[in-house]
Amino acid sequence: MAFADPTAEGYRCYLCGGQTFTRLHAWPVGDRWNPARISIAVWQCGCGIVFLYPVPGPEQLPDCGDWWSKRRKRPRRNLTYKRIRAAVSHALVGSPRYRFVKYTRKAIASGKLLDVGCGDGRLLQVAGPHYDCVGLEPSPIAAEQARRKGFPVLQTAFETARLRSRSFDVVTLDSVIEHVRNPLHVLRKANRILKPGCVIALKTNKFNGPAYRMHGRGWYGFRHGYHTFLFTGKTLSRTLEAAGFEVLKRPKRDRLLDDILILWGRKVREVEPASAAADPSCSASGESSPSGLPKPCGRDLCRSPADGRLP
Fold it and tell me: Which CATH number describes the domain made up of 21-269?
């Protein structure tokens, strides 16, 4: 079966600008892991960046690709073990969200926090006692749940949100950077809205960790059809640095046996937000590939078209 070839269609790596790609895994239409109505594959650039190509459009995924839809395919394995492990971990060291906020406070203890892709607001609940919190969430389902918890939430994609420059002390992206069409664009925008010296916190699945090496093409970290980029500590660090951040040595989670990668970066210089026209990962037209499939350029987080201002 033929799969779309990013090199043949003019795609370039957002980080290095190169076109030396190796296909790692592929899932045809109808594969148990593939919820899309097109065949999809994961590729790796010579610089190490791992990406999904082609990226399914909204009409090619259940409920227009809304991550919070009940129709989204959710394969599961070892559920009982995972629930027991999570309960024990929670009792001993707190929930993952608690630990994420705890270590973010070591970098910057208070101020105004924007949670990009805030989902149903559970991270906002944990951060609320320490920060002046605002959420941003493209899914109408999740945004409404977060508002019910008492937080102001802007329902839109981060890429199109109208946010004032230098208006936040902390920007969090908990399980978000792997969903975007261009990570460098997103991090450059985060740089613009952060005050000088302030902090971004990112959490994502770690590519090439123990779970990936064990499960290969069945690794849950692919979230087949939804996760557009996957990172190692090295590639995410390089992306942060290109966006004007210094990666902090502490706090940091990037150990050999980790399946989750968490990095914190401090804004050390201003950067100009990249335009779509200057994006090397776009086709010459800046719109779509010759096959008509969407290019990684200015993607909204969950494919929900909306726009607006913070309340």
Answer: 3.40.50.150
